[in-house]
Amino acid sequence: MDPHQLLNDIAGQLRTLVRGAVDGLVGQLPELGEDPSAAGTVLAGRLLAVHDRLPTGDSLVELVREMLGDLAVDSPVPLRLHGWRRAPGAPLGVALVLTDPSGPAGGRAVLGVTPEGPVFDLVVTPGATLTLPATVPQPWSAEASIAVDPGAPEGWDAAFGPGLQPAATRGTATIKVQRTGKLAAGMTDGPGVGVEGIALTVTAAPDSAAAFEIELRGLTASILPAALAALVGGGGTDPAAGGARPVDVTLRADRTAGLRFTGTGTLRVPLPLRLKAPHVSTRDAALELISDSDGTRVGLSVSATAGLPGLPLRVFIDGAGIELPVALSSATRPGLDGSNPRPRFPDAIGTELKVPPVSGGGMVRRNEDHSYGGLIDMDLGVLRLQAMALFRPPDGDAPTSFLVLLAAQFPPPGIQLGLGFALEAVGGLVGVNRRVEVTALQQLVRDGNADHVLFPDRAVERAKEIIGSLGSAFPVAPGRILVGPMIRLTWGARMVSLSGAVILELPAPPRAILLGRLLVGLPDPALPLVRLQAGVLGRIEPAVPMVELLVSLTGSWIVGLAVRGELYLLVRGGAQPEFVLSAGGFHPRYTRPAGVPALDRLQIDLAPGNGFGLRMEAYFAVTSNAVMFGGQVQLDATIAGCGVTGWLGLDALFVFDPVFAFAVQVRAGVAVRAFGRRLAGVALDFTLEGPARWHAWGTGSISVLFWDVELDFDILWGPPPPLTDRRGREPLSVLAEALRRTAAWAAERPAAERTGLVFTPEATGRLTEGSLVHPDATLRVTQKVVPLGVPISRFERRPVPVQTWTIEEVTFGEPQAADGARSLSERFVPGEFFDLTEDQQLTEPAFVSHAGGLRARTERSRTGEGHRVDDRYETVYEPQQEREPSLWPGLFQHEATLPAGAAERLARWRTPEVTVTVRPATLSMVAADTLQPLIDDFTPVDATKDPWETARAQAARPPRFVETWEHR
Asked: Would strands 778-782 and 745-748 be described as parallel, antiparallel, or unpaired?
């Protein structure tokens, strides 16, 4: 659950509890007037008179009494209960008032509570610095310190409640209430939890958000009842024993991060609870907060493994335990309700069986998204079978979804295919209402965990991470279907192993995912000196279109020396075309296109140990704008902080447009260190650009003990670029030629027919050729020579005067302005039309969208002559076919039947003559408001707009056209 949502849920329950408690106190208070000591202060008219003691009330009031005492007038604690009215006419509330020992003039701090909301008011008088010494009542004690910021002459006045904006903090405050002594919750003989003490702390400061902390001191827990713990050899009868050493756990709540455990930053914190007994062991004990429709609870869970002596069977469970409800109601004492513990159903249950030659196991797991996952891995000696499944029942609008992965592995050496190749495993994947999450698959490949999907080893031991990986890589997606085969081939007695899967995601838009894993182990795959592992993820999406490929070398080594790095290819068209090819990443100044991951450098670590390390890394990349490569070598020869470090790096960028140019940055240095501090060193960092004019600049430094010298240089040499006339053709001539081409003009048919026109095959062909135009068509004119509406400074890779081209007018029958026409976008290469800096050449996309044309109206187009057409139904009969007898099995050997043709079957049901004739309806023009006839039997001869407009002009009243029978 989200920590912020959990904080909101608990805060809502606390507000209800406080509202009830304050309502009960207000009902018992007598009529209270204003406190005379508040006159002339920020509390005037708000703070009412003091009450002699804290009245009886609900569970929250009694808890406050246990912490702070009766708040009587003669109490040594300088805390009193007052009436409170936060504003004139506001409902009556109560307030806790802390007064300086010297009197009200020395300062006051007031916490007022109004039932409606409730609303909390914190008011501290200007200049106050207050301290509440630790109170005497046991086992609870309280202490506080409050001070107003000297820069706040008006004091500290803040309100908190539903619908109110967070108020500024005008001072510092620390309030702590703590309890000592043993507290336990749960069953008497276990399971349960216990603490040695509790501390509640509230802090506020101007430079940090107000926070509330609950510290559980000396927390211990037990999972097994005492009798069962003694039976299995765990010992202990105390419900807070069971082998756990005490730990301190702190819960923190604030607006920034919500409610969470401080040790982990989440709603779950591990506990050092271990049980080691014959045939029984526990692990992964944890304390967590849970909130759902059943309320808020504190859960204690543990994972355990158990076996019976003499039997080859082991059983294990994950996440079993108990849950203790959190009571926040006026009827019960606030805190954990230890009298009503609930059993916690395990998150997973599994078994392992070893009966040679058969061995294996399985697991069923409940996931956080309310789905279920299962895994079976059985070795039958002659065949090893694996089955993994995810199932999620219908939930609201989400349908049932499942994912099944099956695999069969053959024992070594597999099924021989020849030439040293062998088929070692086959399998497949099927998913319904599931899709592929490419980002999750990329992370699996980059982490070296592609085998979570492709024939995993030790599947039962790794069931939790495998099922979790399948759930994240193939999430629920209504309407999507996954299907894909899997295969694993080996060569050279398994020195080379290749696992692969092709996963198709259907229906439209379809896409194909290639997932692979190449493993090379030399000279023996069981104990390799050289291990090269390459995880491969490919994606093909025809709808974009896009081809993407990622290769990761994670998990590789050569004679113990780690080898890492990633390769990437992206070819994408459509709205965001891109081309990226990289081995080891990109130039440091390059901004990756959307969807391109940050790649690890190609690296090899030459680190035999004993204080010596040498790392080499490199990269190479090609984009649509530039070519880049670079690398770095790092040396670290130190023992106990003493030794030598050095580095040498290179980053190069080559640009070929508009002219060839390059920039190379070189950095190098060496330093001598003693006990972690530099004694002497030399460093150089410079950049060289060329060749049309050479430019070198950078910094060099020398350091010896406390003496440092730096030298900056910036040198230019060589002749400037020759001033040659590189102008090419003018854009006007090329643009005019492009617009004169037939391909630039097209008549687009409407997406939906507005009229009831039906075209003959001949008309359809002429529409396709362009010699005939649909009456509802729009005229499309576009070109890809020059982007329209934007200033350009280059054309055909050559500089031109800055100019902007637009379409001002289109003549189609009559001239029409292009201002209101809809623009048509085309894709242009930015480097061919705009001046780009080196950074822009690295970061700009390969193509950008600009206007290339427009759509024009065709109201004044010339329409062909109208003519009447015969729109009656056409009836066509099948030709008479010769009768051929066909044998069919019957009572006699030579029984036969004569088939009837389609025309004969139709004739059986046709009447001899037409008895009813339907005459085509005629149109009449009628008044739009009364349907009074204006023109009967209106039939336009020419199917254009003119006859309709003529008829409308003849009508004296606003007309409409209806079929004649509608007004008779």
From this structure: antiparallel
Q: Which of 98, 99, 95 is nearest to 86 (CA)?
A: 95
Assess whether the previous peptide bond of 278 is cis (omega < 30° from 0): no
Specify the pLDDT at position 243. 47
Check: CB of residue 951 under 8 Å from CB of residue 958: no
Radius of gyration of the chain (CA): 42
Question: Which one-letter DSSP state was computed for residue 831?
Answer: G
Distances in Å between the Cα of 783 and the Cα atoms of 332, 738, 823 are 78, 7, 12
How confident is the model over 527-535, as a mean pLDDT?
A: 91
Q: Which whole-number Å values give the CA distances from 558 to 72, 411, 599, 634, 708, in the listed order?
A: 79, 28, 21, 19, 41
Q: What is the mean pLDDT of the chain?
A: 82
Over residues 764-796, the pLDDT tens digits come to 777 777 677 777 777 888 888 899 989 998 887
Q: What is the mean pLDDT of residues 223-248?
A: 57
Q: Is residue 338 within 8 Å of residue 329, measured between CB atoms?
A: no
Other Cβ atoms within 10 Å of 290 Cβ, number: 18
C-alpha 496/C-alpha 489 separation (Å) is: 8
Which stretches within 646-796 are classed as H helix?
A: 731-740, 761-769
**Mean pLDDT lowest among 164-178, 293-307, 853-867:** 853-867
CA atoms within 13 A on the CB side of 158: 19
Residues whose CB falls within 8 Å of the CB of residue 906, separated by 6 or more in sequence, listed in order: 877
Supply angle C-alpha 140, 255, 87, rounded to 5: 75
> HSE (CB half, 13 Å, CA atoms) of 900?
7
Identity of the highest mean pLDDT range in 199-208, 241-250, 775-784, 892-901: 199-208
CA–CA dist 106, 243 (Å, integer) = 54
Q: Write down the residue that tokens 């972690």 correspond to.
A: 676
For the chain, give the longest Cα–Cα distance: 127
Q: DSSP per residue over 234-247, as a string?
A: ----STT-TTPPPE
Instruction: Read off φ and ψ for residue 535, nearest 5 degrees.
Output: -90, 135
Half-sphere exposure of residue 199: CA atoms within 13 angstroms, side-chain side: 17
- Over residues 899-927, the pLDDT tens digits come to 554 445 445 445 555 555 666 667 777 88
- The pTM for the full model equals 0.62
